[in-house]
Design a protein that fits this description.
Elements (H helix, E strand, L loop, with lengths): L3 E10 L3 H18 L3 E7 L4 H7 L5 H10 L2 E6 L13 H8 L4 E7 L9 E7 L9 E5 L6 E5 L5 H25 L9 E6 L7 H15 L8 E6 H10 L6 E4 L1 H11 L12 E3 L4 E3 L18 H13 L3 H17 L13 H12 L1
Parallel strand pairs: 1-2, 1-3, 3-12, 5-10, 8-9, 8-10
Antiparallel strand pairs: 4-5, 4-11, 6-7, 11-12
Helix pairs in contact: 1-9, 1-11, 5-6, 7-8, 9-10, 10-11
């Protein structure tokens, strides 16, 4: 196997991001010690609300330039976004998704194999538009009735087509993995569920629905290979919690995907175990789904599993399936044994202890 050296940008961000991203680096360093063909170098880059307070920008141009020109991929920790408007501030991860054209947020939601009710699904969220274009305005309403605020919800055919295509590709890849490992899936063939609210938002969500379905129906690589279904988003929430085992790959516009993926974390116990990857055609950023968690910052108890799994997901999209598989197997072993769990999972272990337990299982 040809040797490969990957340069990874590390963006700890805010809060517990500064505690879990070093865990991700340790996992990568451990992998390079056991996989002779694979090596990593690292560069730590500033981004986040703390960076904004120090420099006046949450995402320095140099950070983006370094990622684009020098890095193979990146890991992003967490960001502390204020709930009130702060002049000049905007989310750095949202900006990164736009500037690097990371148009898909991929979030696997998976229980351990020994769970009484196994769950294994992926939510594929469009990452670049919808209400997250952040084009808002506030103005005085008519007749002195007070202020009115409004926001643009932008849905494009291009973005909808490519996110549906990625969802289809992921569904096929998941089925290939199931077939090759002998693991029986919950469906006879891969399934993609298109989520929308076109019964109310007939123009925007209507375009998403029509384009996503067309992308999956008209492409020869998906024809007859993928089951396609649709779900109105409010019904989707209900059914996701009632019968999560029914779903394989869910594709959704930005806002619905954000809400569904965070909510789905409750199905597996904690945001601390749910990974994600921000994926484009030429770059990937692994990102744990949890926030900056200021209430536990500095206590050494942040759960690093979501970050470790995000490392595995990042490696998968880099084409390093063996390394990704090793990471998932090590995490699964740790969670199934259940002796080294962080407080959010009912245990007493600290961040370092959890990382060391996973590293031990990699060796």
């Amino acid at each position: 196997m040809a040797s490969r050296s990957l340069r990874i940008g590390l963006l700890p961000g805010d809060g517990i991001g500064r505690e879990v991203i070093p865990a991700g680096r340790l996992i990568l360093e451990t992998l390079s010690s056991i996989l002779p063909h694979l090596s990593f170098t690292f560069t730590t880059l500033p981004a986040g609300y703390t960076t904004f307070q120090e420099t006046g920008t949450a995402l320095p141009p140099k950070t983006v330039e370094t990622l684009r020109n020098e890095c193979s991929a990146a890991l992003f920790g967490a960001v502390s976004s204020p709930t009130k408007k702060v002049p000049g501030y905007s989310s750095p991860i949202v900006a990164l998704r736009k500037q690097l054209d990371l148009y898909a947020n991929v979030r696997p939601v998976k229980t351990v194999s020994t769970a009484p009710k196994p769950i294994d699904l992926v939510i594929v969220r469009e990452n670049t538009e919808d209400l997250y274009v952040k084009e808002e305005r506030t103005f005085d309403g008519p007749n002195g009735e007070g202020k009115v605020a409004e926001a643009i919800k932008r849905i494009s055919q291009r973005a909808s087509h490519r996110i549906a295509t990625m969802a289809g590709d992921i569904a096929l890849r998941r089925q290939t993995i199931r077939d090759s490992t002998g693991v029986k899936g919950m469906h006879s063939k891969p399934r993609v569920t298109i989520t929308h609210k076109s019964n109310v938002l007939s123009q925007t969500d209507g375009l998403f629905r029509e384009t996503a379905r067309s992308a999956l129906v008209s492409s020869p690589k998906f024809t007859s290979k993928i089951e396609i279904e649709e779900q109105i988003v409010d019904s989707m929430v209900y059914k996701l919690f009632r019968q999560p085992e029914s779903y394989d790959v869910i594709v959704a516009p930005n806002l619905y995907g954000d809400i569904l993926s965070d909510g789905a974390a409750a199905l597996v116990g904690s945001l601390g175990v749910v990974p994600s990857a921000n994926v484009g055609d030429g770059f990937v950023i692994g990102e744990p789904c949890h926030g900056s968690a200021p209430d536990i910052e500095g206590k050494g108890i942040a759960n690093p599993i979501a970050t470790i799994r995000s490392v595995g997901l990042m490696l998968e999209f880099l084409g390093e399936e063996e390394a990704a598989g090793r990471v998932e197997k090590a995490v699964e072993g740790s969670l199934v044994e259940g002796k080294v769990l962080s407080p959010d999972l009912g245990g007493k272990a600290g961040t370092v202890e959890v990382v060391e337990d996973v590293m031990r299982r990699l060796l």
